Amino acid sequence: MGTHQELGRRERKKAQTRKLIAGTALRLFLERGYDNVGVREVAQEADVATATLFAHFPSKEALVFDRDDEQEQLLLDAVRDRPDGVSVPQTLRGWFHQMVETARSEPGLSSFHQLIEDTPALREYSAGMWRRHENALAGIIAADIGLPAPDTACRLVARTALEIIPSIRSLDEAAQIIDVTFAFIEAGWAATAAPATA
C-alpha cells in the first residue's frame, strides 16, 4: 500500500515538473522568440537542472509539443471507442471539429499556433509528429476493419485527415476545411469499403 502511494506521488511530481518546464519554455518562447531562448535558460527559469529537463523532453522542439502522446491517444481512442454505426471518417470529422472548438475557447492558442508557423524548426517537428500519428491512426483503422496491417485505403484516410492540421490552425475557415475534406474522405471510404459488384 505504501509503495503504491509512493509511486502515485512520484508520478504526480514528475507530471508537475514536466508541466512546469513546458509552461516555462512556452512563456519564454512567446515572449522572446523560439530561436532567442536556449534550453539552459528554460531549465534555469523553471528552477530545474538541464539534465532534468532532458529527462522529460528529448529535444528543444519537444518542449513546445508536451501533449504529443496525449493528443495521439485521444485521436486513437476516438476511432477505437466510437459508437456503433458511426464510420471512421464521421468520427474523425467530429474529432477535428471538437479540436477546433477547444482551440477557440483556449486563450493564447492563436499565439501558440503563430509561434509554430513562424519557426521552421517547429513547423518541421510538428509535421513529423503528425506523420507518427498518421502511422498509428492507419494501424487503428486497419485493426478496426479486420486487417492485419494498414492497406492503401487506411493510409490514405489517415494521411488526408491529418494533413489538414496546418490548414486549420488559423481557425477562420477551419469548419469549412474540415467538412470539405471529410466529404471527400467519406466518399472515397464508402467506395473502397463497398463490396465489389459483378
CATH architecture annotation name of the largest domain:
Orthogonal Bundle
Number of domains: 2
List the total number of helices: 10
Strand coverage percent: under 5%
Intertermini distance:
64 Å
Task: Quote the CATH topology of the largest domain.
Answer: Tetracycline Repressor, domain 2
> Percent of residues in helical segments?
over 70%
- What structural category do the secondary elements indicate? mainly alpha
Report the sheet with the most strands, covering strand number, pairing sense and barrel closure.
none
What is the CATH C level class of the largest domain, in words? Mainly Alpha
Low-confidence stretches: none
Q: Name the shape in a single word.
A: globular
Q: Roughly how many Å is the radius of gyration? A: 20 Å
Write down the overall mean pLDDT: 87
- Helix-strand pattern, N to C? HHHHHHHHHH
User: Could you give the count of β-strands?
Assistant: 0
Q: Which short descriptors sum up this protein?
A:
198 residues; mainly alpha; Tetracycline Repressor, domain 2; 0% strand
Characterization of the model:
By secondary structure, the protein is mainly alpha-helical. Helix content is 74%, strand content 0%. It has two domains: 2-62, Orthogonal Bundle (Arc Repressor Mutant, subunit A), CATH 1.10.10.60; 68-193, Tetracycline Repressor, domain 2 (Orthogonal Bundle), CATH 1.10.357. It has helices at 2-32, 39-46, 50-56, 68-80, 88-105, 109-118, 120-144, 152-162, 165-168, 174-193.
Summed up:
This protein has helices at 2-32, 39-46, 50-56, 68-80, 88-105, 109-118, 120-144, 152-162, 165-168, 174-193.
